[in-house]
């Protein structure tokens, strides 16, 4: 660190690996050190984080709080800062990074933000040594298609192994690459970008095309893994929902191994489940996998003689397979497999695919659908479902703004459904039947009176009594039941989730009860 320079400390502490730190400090000495330096420089530059400098308890140390839409980006920028690449300033045209104690200015020449189609973001940086570099980070499924594997095959092979190990323990992974641009390549990109950004029609598609043209022949720098911790009470909440007879489907953008690992950690998947995996790279293989899945479901059904001997099933399907299924109108077969499974886990799905899956269920069943999410990529799914719930957290408030209900944590869904859902079902059922009963009784009194008085103009009830009948005489039960009635206590409903099935079986309001109430009112 240079004389008189302040020490920059990220607000979120990061544990530093000494071997990696030594490699970064001796950066120019070895090729491995240079790659490590470029890796952390990519983490510090390829983001939309805004740094806020806070005075710490020590005047010689400045604490930096990184603000951004994505907690993953905050974690990666904090990691880069811990290894000496500290993002200290951001403006519309440049960023300032403290590189191992020396402030350096990098010009932001272009930025392609992350989108669900490309599944990556890129930034073009003008470095202090006058070179122009393109940094790209994104999902491995997207990145390995644009990486030149002949440049450093050993790094590619090692990164693939690390990605598999990261995702197997439930980490959210990203792949980082770099390419140095010539002046002519940059000018060509700049002209195409300006033309696309000013287009009146199809601007989004044109910008994606410009990004795809520049994001190619990348050199792999490495991969990152970010732990996405489950909130408190998530496994217990999912277990209670399943005991209540509610089918739980998980739709995530994470890769398959990460999604499966999270499924086990939240008790959605169990070791005794038979997994049906559909992960296809072509229409023909997807069709075959779907047919095989239907055959397996039918075979297991025939072997199961009763509910006790039934084998639990879990369907695991990725976004590419969903594209082929929706394009070839094979949704009916997918629905047939999915509805027979106890758990459905969709990985690497785009926001519109999430909404498409919810729509698939709504069109083919009379069951109510509920979608819950915490990020902007969950908005379309939340809006498509019958009931949408947004979780307010680090991912922003887009999901909350688009939802019917908002809550702070996922575990609050259990009392919302099992307690308040049960109480409200009982109250609404009673109120509907009671209102039909009291109105039918009132009307039939007038009807019988007219018959026995020879259709005279006189009425059995005077005008004041007619008005007060609904407003005063019979209003108390409606108000009291709607507010205070609790057929079972909160503790009982939470202890026995199966009681939620009363609403699913329509025990308190159905055609038989309605006919009985009407016959009783006539009598």
From TrEMBL:
TM annotation in the entry: 436-455, 467-484
Highest taxon of the lineage: Eukaryota
Matches recorded under InterPro entries: ATPase_P-typ_cyto_dom_N, ATPase_P-typ_TM_dom_sf, HAD-like_sf, HAD_sf, P-type_ATPase_IV, P_typ_ATPase, P_typ_ATPase_c
Enzyme class label: translocase
Residue span, P-type ATPase C-terminal domain: 400-523
Subcellular location: Membrane
GO molecular function: ATP binding; ATP hydrolysis activity; ATPase-coupled intramembrane lipid transporter activity; magnesium ion binding
One GO BP: phospholipid translocation
SUPFAM superfamilies given in the database record: Calcium ATPase, transmembrane domain M, HAD-like, Metal cation-transporting ATPase, ATP-binding domain N
Keywords tagged on the record: ATP-binding, Magnesium, Membrane, Metal-binding, Nucleotide-binding, Translocase, Transmembrane, Transmembrane helix
Residues reported in the UniProt entry to bind ATP: 73, 114, 137, 172, 252-254, 348, 354, 377-378
UniProt GO cellular component terms: plasma membrane
Keyword Lipid metabolism: no
Catalytic activity: ATP + H2O + phospholipidSide 1 = ADP + phosphate + phospholipidSide 2
Entry membrane topology: Multi-pass membrane protein
EC number: 7.6.2.1
Pfam families reported in the protein's UniProt record: Cation_ATPase (PF13246), PhoLip_ATPase_C (PF16212)
Annotated positions binding Mg(2+): 374, 378
Similarity annotation: Belongs to the cation transport ATPase (P-type) (TC 3.A.3) family. Type IV subfamily.
Name this polypeptide is given: Phospholipid-transporting ATPase
